[in-house]
Amino acid sequence: MAKNPAYSDYLKFAPTFRYGGREWGANDLAAFQKKLGKKNYARWARNHAVAAKVFDPTEQSVYGAVQPQLDAINYERSKAEAAARRRMGDLAGFTQAIMGMLGEISPAIRGAYGEGAETMRAGGTGYGDVLNQNMAANAAQGNSLLDTIGAPDAQRLSGGDAGGVLAGLAGWIPSDMLEAQRGAYGDMYAQLPKEASFQAQLQMKKEMADAAQTDSDFSEKIMEMLTGIPAFRQELKDQKVKNDLAIRNQKLKEIAQQEETAYKNWYRARMDNNDKEANYWKAVSVGLEQQRIAISQGNLDQRVASDARQAAKDRGLTPDGQLLPGYQWKDPKNHGKGTKKLPTAASSGGWGKIQADMADDIDAYVTPGDYPGQPDVLWPYAKAFKALMAKYSGMVQDQAKLRALITKLLKQKGFKPKAAKPGGGK
């Protein structure tokens, strides 16, 4: 069977359920009991506790008040998650593109330096050969003159190898230098793609950490709502009891007025010796009295239930045995030893004392820099907020005031909450 799209995994509740080919909702209890029969309905309710809660007005009220807020939080959470995925996808795409571009730099540099080295080598060799040729020609011309005048062989001239020196200084040495630079610069720029990949990994790690922190912030908002549901549910039940009592008391007043009217009519009929009419009004009085007794008994049941709730509250418990806010078990392993009340703001020295203690706690969440000018290291905002709420929430009744105080002190100390902006901006 397909899952009900309105079902809440947080509340374990759906406002309707499907049975017998149709949907059943909060106002269909009488029709559903008639369809199954009272005995069969009781057995069905035991076997389908989640579906049976559809007929519970309190659960319907909780769902109607809480689920829209949970849906809104999850919507913002999905937007933040989508934005984080887009940023990480864009980063991956940009990194791949820039790595391809950077990878072309090293071959280009090696090619340019290689061509330069080859040009210097060829140029030096060429100029050296020309110089040697010119010097050989000049020597031959001088020797021809010496032969004419009969100079001894010891005085003959030689062209020499000045061209080889020129080729080395002007060609081979600069060429070797360019070859060395070609390798060095080529190796250096060959590292650029690796550096780009490394920087991208660092940024990706930061993006993932930011996304995880944002998701954790949304989870804390949801947990804050869910922890308040038991108190909210009990508040709805208490209000329903008060409303039911008020309606019943009003009904008793109406019955008392009707009984007075019926008695007057009965008395008048007796005085007129009208036995038939007197018997009629007597029967009406009996019926009204039965109604009054039934309603009074209902009020008594409500009062008994109210007294039971108050007795549980005096012990720091809800009617179903759960701890009320501000209480804890004396022995967590043995609940039979009862509960004890946590220190309150008044017994702890008031809000001023709590604020001073809280400021000291926040100072412990700050690690100073190792040297002047180095920034301090702060706990994540959500972690600090959660730690303070865990320590002080049991000391005060006004939880909203406590949250506001924590937020104020954290901001004064430089803590900044992280929240996703619309559109996925950072």
Structural features, described:
This protein has 426 residues and is mainly alpha-helical. The chain folds into 4 domains: 1-55, no CATH class; 103-208; 228-316; 342-424, no CATH class. It contains 12 helices and 6 strands. The strands form 3 sheets. It has a two-stranded antiparallel ribbon. It has a two-stranded antiparallel sheet with strand order 3-4. Strand 1 (17-19) and strand 2 (22-24) form a beta hairpin. Helix 4 runs antiparallel to helix 8 and helix 8 (229-271) packs antiparallel against helix 9 (275-314). The longest helix is centred in the first third of the chain and has 47 residues, at 57-103. It is elongated, with a radius of gyration of 47 Å. Residues 420-426 have low confidence and may be disordered.
Sum this structure up briefly.
The protein has 426 residues and is mainly alpha-helical. 71% of the residues lie in helices and 4% in strands.
Element layout with pairings:
Blueprint: E1 17-19, E2 22-24, H1 29-36, H2 38-47, H3 49-52, H4 57-103, H5 105-149, H6 162-190, H7 192-227, H8 229-271, H9 275-314, E3 327-329, E4 339-341, H10 350-364, E5 366-367, E6 377-378, H11 381-392, H12 399-412
Antiparallel strand pairs: 1-2, 3-4, 5-6
What would you call the shape? elongated
Question: How many DSSP-defined strands?
Answer: 6
Uncertain segments of ≥5 residues (pLDDT<50)? 420-426
Order of helices and strands: EEHHHHHHHHHEEHEEHH
**Helical run tally:** 12
The radius of gyration is 47 Å
Total discrete domains: 4
Oligomer category? single chain
Side-by-side strand order of the widest sheet: 1-2
Report the mean per-residue pLDDT as an integer.
76
Helix content percent band: over 70%
Structural class category? mainly alpha
Please summarize the sheet with the most strands: 2 strands, antiparallel
Strand content: under 5%
Distance between the termini: 42 Å
